[in-house]
Each structure stands twice: as structure tokens, then as C-alpha cells.
Amino acid sequence: MNKAKILCLFVVMLVIASCTKKFEELNTNRNAPTSNNPATLLPSVIFEPINDHMTLQTWLTDQIMQYYVRRNDNQLDAYDFATGSAFFNAVWRQNYSAISNANDMISAAKERNLGAYEAAGKTMRAFYMATNTELWIDAPGIESGLGINNTNPAYDKQQTIYTNVLKDLKEANTTFAASSGFVAGGDVLFKGDVMKWRKLANSLRLRYLLRLSNRTEVNAPAEINAIVSDPTAYPIINNNSEAGVYDFSGTSPNISSFAVQSITVFSGLSMSKRIQQVYEVYDDPRVDFFFRRPVNIAQFPNHEGVPNGIPREQAQSWNGNGDANTSVLTTRFVNNGLLDFTIISNAEVKFILAEAAMKNWINTGTSAKQYYDAGITANFSQWAIEIPPGFLDLPAVAWNNTLVRVMDQKWMAFFLNNTVEAWGEYKRTGLPNLTIGALATTVTAGKVPTRIFYPQLEQSINSLNYKAGSTSIGGDNITAKHWYQN
Amino acid sequence: MKLSTCLFLLFQFLAQQSFAQRAIRGIVYDGDNKEPLIGASVMLKGTNVATITGTDGRFSLNGDTNAKTLLISFAGYSEQEVPIANSNEVTITLRPKANLEEVVVTSLGVEAKRSNLSYSTQRVSAKDFNTSRIGDISQQLSGMVPGLNINTGNGSGVSSSRIVLRGEASLNLNKNQPLIVVDGVVVSNNLDGVGGASESGNNLPVDYGNGLTDFNTDDIEDVSVLKGSKAAALYGTRAANGALVIRTRSGANKKGLGIEYNTGVTIDRVTSFWDEQTDYGGGFDNAFRVDWGGNYGAPTDGALIKQPTGAQSSTGISVEPTPFLKRLDRKGFFQTGVGTNNNLALSFNNNKTWGRVSMSHLSRTGIVPNTEYKRKNVGFRLGTDVTDRLKLDISANYINSSSDNLPVIGGGGEGIINNMYWGMNNYDYNDYKKDIWLPGKEGVTQNYFLSWGTNPWLIVRKNLNGFKRKRLFGNIKATYKLTENLSAFVRTGTDFYDDRRQSQRPSGQPNFPNGMYREQSIGFQETNTDFLLSYDKKMKGDISLNLNAGANRLDQTYNTDFYESRKLGVPFVYNKGNAGDVPRTINYDATKRINSVYGSAQVGLDEKLFVDVTGRNDWSSALPMNDNSFFYPSVGVSAILSRLLNLPQMISYAQLRASWAATGNDTDPLLTQRVLSFGTLPSSVINPSNLVNPALKPEKTKAIEVGGEFKFLNNRFGVDVNYYNNVTTDQILQVPISQASGAVTRLINAGKIKNSGIEIFAKATPVRTKSFGWDVTLAWARNRGKVVELIDGVESFVIAQGPSGGTVEARPGGRMGDIYGRGLARTSQGDLILDVVNVSGTSLVRPRLDNRIKRLGNYNPDWTAGFTNSFNYKNLTLRFLLDYRSGGLLSVADGALLYRSGIVTETLPYRTSKFVPDGVVAGTGGSFSKNSIPTTGQDWYRSYYPSANVESNSYDATYLKLREVSIGADLKPWLKMLPVESLRFSAFGRNLFTKTKSSFLRHFDPESLALSGSSLIPGFIVGQLPSPQTYGFNLSVGF
Questions:
Q1: How would DSSP label each residue in A62-75?
Q2: pTM value?
Q3: Which residues pair with B834 in a beta bridge?
């Protein structure tokens, strides 16, 4: 073999080595789809964040709104919100992820002229954005959910966020009306029923208008009236079958995070003192539905609640033995799909209308009392509980033309029906009356928190915007004031 | 065939004897220890008369009387010519090849003399590390190589190790490992994790062992540690963190047929665990409480208390009172692990063909009951000179490793350690051993004293995690000598494995109410085909020239298949068909190719001065098509002062070296193209959580190294010193972004990390006499990794998420390995801020936690030192190894739990009395006043050490460890009558003694780390199993 041959061989090797023809093919990802398809994006826009909302409701807002006490792990009940960062962050992450999916769905739907998907995207985006501003006040808004196009989104003021929420919902109603429906499938919320979607969008708009009704800029009374007075243009939820609820099948993964809790977790969730009052004052049958009386029934024949916001050791050993001697949350929703996720219930719409009628914002021919009674009835019927004769006339229940009464029953109706909104209504009205626990008092100087901390990662990763956002709300603390609070 | 070759040699020998005219006898000794050399080749120069020395070092041959010279050679020794003169009896002493002639394996498997190299390398011979055959080779190298840092997870049966050479250059935690090369083939050391974070309740990770755990250490001849970029420049992209180049035993250094058998036994004993208090039992406020967990309860004084046995229930309290005693034996739950290792090797060498076949079987039971690990290896080496010019070398290894059960690792609810945290002293695990289920409720309700904890016997007996891994790696290499100076080789090698895991969880336990079944399979293959042309020439004027040019193609495929159902249709049936839910399934395939060409040139001047340059260009399919080529050069110089200059007599050798090198790095495949992810519901997709980057650039590392090696007093003392400075830029990183974007991370080129450090390796022989020798080595290293730049607009990059909210973060100006977390709130004067709380009508004070996170320390040690001593007396060897680590922070998530549940003796003070903690309480208008409110120990420990308080749960990790003591004996001289060639016995103890600077760390093993998914996270321990002492012995017989 001579040197020329060797050189030849070497040159051949060089050529082979520098040949990169197949590289593009090698580096092509065949494991997943590459294009945005509205019909496959829609199920995730609806479903993905739901379980993190469920978890937030189960561990945080159910306790803040004093439905029950998580005896063995009540730091959140005592307002030590730093301990909840894991699932607060999960809600942030999932909501914005869903918003980015909704954004992509909206633009893909526009391109393909699929109005229903565009409108559904806007409806869900509005719901997630509104939840975000309820949880954090100022938060990434118009710049959020843009993926690679903006990895450092600025924070919008709550006013801006709510303005965009209302705009999205209004546009959604119109676009739905003109659309040809969910022609490509994928509607896991209403099975393609566009009218239900319109009712959801309009009912949500009612909710947020009411929330902002303290701000004259929003002109909420007139806007609410415009919706309510034109049911053809603005259909709203009118019965339980039209409510905005996601119906879990009960088989994993289509099961709620609430239902998969270990059964022992439920025996650690004791009825609150606040619910015990409801039982003592007007013996609401819903109390018996939601809570099981103490195991040690011989010694404690009645419902026994635990005060919220007390030191854990005290909660754990309430009545000597929290497990045996307190009422605990029912296990009827464990391991099945019986408990839905509520975006907005029929009862809530009724209570919104009751308040609007009471304040004379609307005049539909239905009185505030009728709306109020309908709200209570709707909630009873949601749980398939028979309303006891004369219940609506009980002194502690009967309509008395006060906001206190509306908010008491609205609060009862919010239980397991999106208590983030119960919290929102509390922030707006300070109702129902809650008693702050001894331990909680030391953390917030006697105030019920109004929000949760921004995710810790934002502090370092989106620091400039984080700083601007938290400065704007007066500091990243859990008692900052919402724009609508005055 | 090998046997026949031997017989042929024998016949030849006999034949020559009968026709000879002259008999020459003699003995060959080792020049150092004066022992007879077995198997040395003795040849009459100029004839074909040859023989090898026998077991006593003796030889005899008959030859032509005209023959004047004997030529004696033996691998590892300098060849020697001895004139025969008139004597027929000769005594020959062979000198081992001096250390300055030490040969290391460098890039591409090319062997080179250390003195010629412009960078630091270290070769560790198997006999120096393989005295205790435990764990993988990296664990055995611990403390022997400065700059090589090993952390081993705490598995039971098998444990993965994290290897870092010269500090962490990459912000990607998992990309700091050196390349592993076996017989010239790159092999995987992947840790293919399954499971979630280290505190997950029902998805804890399992350590199935990473790639290195597969290797049979008995097959290893030596390991060359190539630390710097320069050393590895020719290995290309993946060797930026250095390389461990392993040579397996080939059979070439023993003539004739050889049989070797090694058997060993190891015993893992749990000798220390948490230092528990025994005075109080389960409960709170000095009173027993049912279903509580924690040990602030009643004193264990034998008082009669109602304690439910069997399954917990709220009403279970109404049983007969029994004496309240400390009954729980946490340490006693663990068992003694037993390991056996048997290895049989056959080797042969007839000068033209040599080879070795080895078979080994290893079996270990872990310290966690019902855990085990088994491994079978078959190794094969064959080399042959097909012609004078053509040489073939084949290496193949087949490995079959498996386990029926390995434990989950971490502090979450499904783990053993979580049970131990919450176990109440007044119960006994043994009461729940026989019946793990309530009678008639198998798979429905477990039998245990905590309703929310899992019976540990259920965990170890029913929650199984098994695996089966089959692996094959090897290569074929053909070397052809084209001319006297020019040779070429072509080689193709592959590493292939198929790893199948499955996890089973029966229903009826709190963390898996419906049960769980999971299967995961991983397929991996990497094939490298390369070619190298080498030109070696001594020119006029004592100039030597060495040129290399070559090319390589790398093909890698990786695929995974995953299935998980969290609901069993029929209880206790673990099959994909038995899903009661819609199971989660996903598969993933990826391929990658890298083409490379490279070359090197070295010019030597009279064996005194060497200058070399290298260059390599890679084309990677993982990078964007328009920017996938990257070139990296290196240059270095080595000057052997002791040959260049006239140095004082006491300096026997001195070498100075300096080098500069650049390396590039690509990334994983499929990261340049956006794809959607599958959503939770069927027929749904979501935006990916990681944003890809179609404009990626290759990473770059530039490294400078200067060093020298000096030997004094006739090589009795030697020291090798290195300073290095590596700068890595344009790292390809998954950088966290604001999750408000909809995604979690994006892939970018960013960051600038500088690692600089000093390494010293000193070797001394304080005593060397004919029968006694004492050798000492010291490996000392210090590294500082500095984050010079990060990413625009990003203050911090979270490298790893530890347990309890602790993080490892890179911040500009900070160091690599900085730990961040929450800590105690203090006033500007540094006083602890206490909050007054009302507990059951009594005011107490509790320290306030600061909501902000701060830097708490760094997990890297300030410096490390490994100190080995070996004493040889005649045929006995005593060796011990000490490891010292100075500084560094260890965040102990377990610590919070030990305080919270009142387990350790630290929680004994103030059980029944109160004390006034130092600190201040807030008054009105931002003022503070000194605290005067007393509190109870119980409340104080629980509020001072909550999990979220990463600061107070972190400790100075300084420790001194007696890592190993071994004693070896060469029994052959004592048992000469046995028909064996060699017989060695060794006994060892490992992990014998640990002294930690922080007293609290006595509860733990300070050098462990946390396993989270596929990452081993240093600086954190969580759910740590006890670290056993290991004893064992080995017996080797050679024929």
C-alpha cells in the first residue's frame, strides 16, 4: 500500500465524516404532533388547570372561607401561606399554560374560521385570567401565555386584567352566536352545545361585573342590566343543567384531585365552627350532607366543629380527640366522579341577580326574594337534597332584603362549588361574618388575607416585572388591597 | 486451542532439552521487592530457544554453546540482556519500568508515556483500588485521585454515584460527569431515573444503578483519569468534563494458560442510625395520643396506658391498658446485607494470540429487608497478530443485572424512612410483621398503628420495584502496520442496553388506595466507528515526531416506553391488562449522530522537550443544520527539566508542563424543533413546557493547565502539582422562564462558569527495606467554581430543586453549588425575631421564618484530602484510607423531621419544663424588646426546625472518614505445596468510622446526596437510609 492510497483513504474518511445529509432527518421529532389543532387544544384548555383549582379549593379557600379545618396540617388555615407555595405555583403554572394553549387555539381557529373554538378560547382565557387576578391582584395579563414570544411578561394592573376579561367574554358571546359550532369536536365541557357556552360566557360576565361594582368606571349596574334585559342577545344560565361545571368521569385521569385523596385525609378535615353555627341556628340539611357527625356519637351526639386559625396541636386534639369527637367531611366524593368542578353554578347566578334586584340595578319582573329563594333551591337541588318544608321561611333564612342574608346563602352555595369565588365575594363585601382564629390573628393583624404570594421563581426569573407588580399593589404581602376593594 | 499452544510450547521445550549442548539455569527476581518473577520470558538471543520462568522464578534451558546473551523480558519491566559468559547459573534482577516511564492511556486509546504529556493524568492500577470489591469502580477510586469527587446515593443493594472531575462546569446538574471509556469504547453511565421528587408521597424515585454499576471490577486492569479538557480534547464533545479511561485485563501479560478464581463475601451492617431518645413515647404534650406520630408523648416508664394495637381507628382506644415502654426498634428493622462475588477467569498467551474470558456472579442483599441486587458478567478479550503487520483486538462484555426489589429513595410517604420519622416509640414494628393486612381485608385495609402511614413490612414485602437489565458492549479493532513508521487502525464499538423496570403497589394503603402498576423500559445504543492513522518517527538530531489523524462516527439511539396505572382492576394482579383507570403511557425515540475528524502532532526533542497540538472538528445532528460544525484546538508543552538541566542529586526527576485546550459540546437530540405535548385527556395536546431553540450554538470550554511532577531522593518522594482554569461559555441550558409565558423553561446558550483549582498528589515511601515497605499517598484538591455571567435579565438560575424548598442556584458573582433557602428572620442587629403565639391559652414564643430566600452556603467542600497508607511486610499488606472533607454545607431535610417528631436526643431538654429563648419580640411601631416569655422544648424544636427552615436544617459537612482498612496476604510462600501459582487472601472493612464536625450530622452519612427523578442532587439528604459498615474478604487463586 503506498502513500497515495493512504491519502485517498483518509480523504474518503474526511468526506464521510463531513457528510451531514441525514442530520435533519435524524433530528426530526416524531414523538409528538407539531401543529396547533383547535379541536385537540380545546380539551386541554378546559381540563388541564382544573385539578390544580380543585386542590387550591380543598387546601386553601375552603379553609380561608371557613367551611372546614384541616386539623393535622392547618398552616394555611393559620395564614402561613409560604407553606402552600407548591400548589399556589401549580395554579399559576397551569392557568398560564392554559392561557397559552387558549391563545394558540384562538389564533389557529381564526385562521381556519372556526368561531366556536375562538370564542371558547376567549371564555376560558377570561376565567383563568380572572382567577389569577383574584389570587394575585396584579399579574401578567396581555403579555402572558405567548410562549417564546415573551418569556418575561409584564404585570397588568387588576383594572386592565378585568377590563380584558369583560371584553373577552363579551366578544365570545357574539362570536359563538355567529359560529357554526364545534365542528371538529373536542368540547369536553358542554359536548358541543354552543348555547351553553354563550350562557357560561354571559354568566361569568355577570359575576365579574358584580365583583367590580364598587368601581364606578366599570359601570357595572348598567352593564348587568343590559345583559339581563336582553336574554336573546345575552342568554344566561337559568337552571342547574346549564351550569358551567366540568363533569369528571371518575376514572383516572379524568378524575378530580379531590376524589383521589386518601380516605384518611377526609377524617382529618373537621367541620368548622362557622358551619357548626349554621347547624345550630337553622339546622340546614346541607350540613348533614357535607359532614359526618362525630364517631364518638355517644358522647357527642351533635355536630362538633373546630375553630379555624388555631394552633395545630389544639385543632388536632379538639374535644380531646379530633378524629373521634368532631364532625368530619363526608367521604361520599372519594374515588368517584360525583363531585364536579364548578366554573359557575346556577345558584351563584341567582344570587347575583338577587343582589342586583335588591339594589335596583335590574328590573326583570322577578323580585330579589324570588331570585334569592331560587338560589337556595338551586343549590339544594344540585346536591339532590330535598328542601325541608318551611326552610325558606326560617327566621335565619327568610329573605329580609339585606346583603348579609344574600351573602350567607351564597356562601353556603359556594361550598365545593369554586370557593375561590366565595373568597372573592368576601373580599368585595366582607361577608359572611368570619371569626379569625387566634394564631391567624398574629400573622395578618386580624385581617383575612386577600391574595397569595407570587411564585418564588418570579422573584428571580422575572424580577423586574415582579418588582413593578408587587410595588404596584403595595408589596407582595397577603393582605394587599384589590382594585375593587374600597 | 490455547491449551494446545501451551502443550506445543512444552514439547518444544522438552525437545530442545534433549538435543541441547549446554544447559543454562537461573532465577529472575523483581528488582524492587526481590521476589521471584513468575512467567518472565527468557530467550537466547539470536536463536529461537526460549522459555518462561516457573512459579519459583526459576528457569532452565538448553541451547547452542555459541549463544552469548540471554534476553529477559517481562511486562512492566525493562528488558534486560545478560551475558552468559562461562557460568551456567545466572541470577537476574529485572527493574520495573521506572515511574517516569509510566504509561497512561490517552484519548482514542492511544498509550503514551506520562512524561511526554503536556497535561496531568493519573493512572490507578486495579490492585490499588480493588481490595474491597464493593460498589462500582468510582466508589473504589474515592480519595485516590485529587480533583475526583465521588458522591454515592444511599440505595440498598445498588447505589448510583455522582462523579465530578475538577468541579462542575455545567449549569446542567446532570452534565458534569466525565466520559467513561472502556477499551477504547465510550460507554454509558446514564442514570435513567423513574419516579418524581425526593419528597413525593406516592412517586418516589428508585435507584436502579447507573451505567458504571454494571461493570465487573475484577476485569479491570487499570484506570487512567484524564482530568482536563486538554487530556480529552481528542475525545470530542462529551469529554469536556474529563474522562475515566478503563482498560480491562487482556491476558497479554501472562504467558501460557492462566486460571484465576476469586471469591469474596461482603457484609453490610447497620451500626449506627439516628441517635434516638428512649425516654418518651408517642403523643404530644407529654401524653399519649392515638394515630399521632411523633414522640413528645408520655414517658416510657411502664405506666399503664390504653394503646390500641392492630389497625388504627378512632375508636380503637377502648382496649385494655398496657405498659407504656420504648418498644420501637428503628435500627433493628434493617437487616445485615450479605454479598457474594465469584469470578472465574481463563487467560492464555502464546506470544501471537492472547485472550481472556471471565465469568462473574455477584449477588447482594440490601440492608432494607427484601431488597437485593444480582449481576452476571461475561467478559471476553482476544488479541492476535494475524500477520506481522496485522493485529486484531476484540473485546466484549455481556452483563445481566437484575433485582426483584429495590427500595424507593427519599423522604416521601411511601418510603421506609418516612415511617421511621413518624413511628411512635411505644409501638413495635414486629407486631405488624405477620399480618400486614387486617384479617380478611387483604388489599383493602392495612394493619398498622398509623392510619396515614404505611406499614413498613407492607412496603418492603409488597411495594416492589424490580428491574432486569441486559447490556452488551465491546469492540473490534484491527491495527495494520503500513510501514516501519506508519500504522493505522480501524475500530468499531458499541454499547447497548435494554433496561426493564416494573413497580407494584397493592391497593389498600394510604398512598396507593387503588394500587399502582408501572412499567418502564429503556433502550440505548451507542455505536462508534473510528479510524486512526499514526506516524511515528525518530529523526535526525534526536527529534521525534508523532502524527495522528483520524475520523469517527457516533450513532446514538435512545428509546423509552412508559406505562403507569394507578388503579388495579383486580387486586394484586400486576399486568398492563389489569388497569382500572386509563393508564398513562408514553414512548419516546431519539437518535443522534456526530461525525468527527481530528488530528494531532507531537514533536519531541531528545526525550526532553515535547510540544503537541491537536485539532478536532465535530458535526452534530443535534444542533441546527446551519450551525452544526464546531472546531476545537489544543496545544501543550512538556519539559523534562531533570534531563534538560543539571539538577541537584536529590532531585531524581522534574517535569514542567503547560497546556491550553478548547472543547465544544453539543446537546441532546430533538431540541431544535417545536412539538406539542400530549394532554391529560385523550385526544388532547398542550404547549410544551420546555421551549426549544432553533438557533442553538455549541457550548465551549477553554482550559488552561500548568503543572509539574517532581521526584526526590531516588524516587522515594514524589509530588505532582496542577493548577487549572476552565472557562465554559455558551452553555446549552433549559433556563427557567416566567411561567406566565405558558412554558416553564426555554433552551438557550448562556452563562459563563469559571472553575479554577489546585491539585496535589504526593507519594512517598518513608521506609523500604527488603522485607518491610511503607508507602503513603496524599491526594489533595481544592476547586472554586464561579458563576461569572448568567443570562440577561435573569438574576438566578435554579440548577436543582432540593427538598423542603431548598434550591441550588447559580447567581452572577456566586459560586457553583450555592444553596439557597428560607431561614430565620432576624432584626438588623442580628437578633432572632420571635412571635408570641397562644397555644391552648398559654403564650409561647416561636422564631419567625423569613419569607425571602437567601444564600445559606455552598455544597462543595473547601478542599478534600485522601490519605492512603500501605504497609508491606514480607507477603502481608496492610492498607488504610482516610478521607477528609473540609467545609461545604449539607442541608438535611430529615433533620426537620427528627426534631418535629421528637426522635433524637437533642429533643430531650425541656420536655417537662420551660425555658426563655434568646431573641426579641416585636413591640409597637417597629420596636423590639428582649423576649421574656418562656416556651416548651416541644414547641420550640418544632417551630425552630420546620422543614421550610432550610437554614437551620443545614450543617457544616466537614468530616473525617476512615474509608477503608484492608489486609492482604500472599499465601503462596506459606503454602508452597499447593498446586497453585498464586493464592491471595484479603480482608477489609469499609466506612468504619466517621467523625463529623457538626454533632447533629452524627445521625447521618455526610457524603450522601438526594435522588430526585433522574438527578443526584448533592448538598441535600432526604429520607436517608442508614449508611452501613461493610466488611468482607476475598480469596484469589491463580493456576
A1: HHHTTSEEETTS-T
A2: 0.84
A3: B847, B921
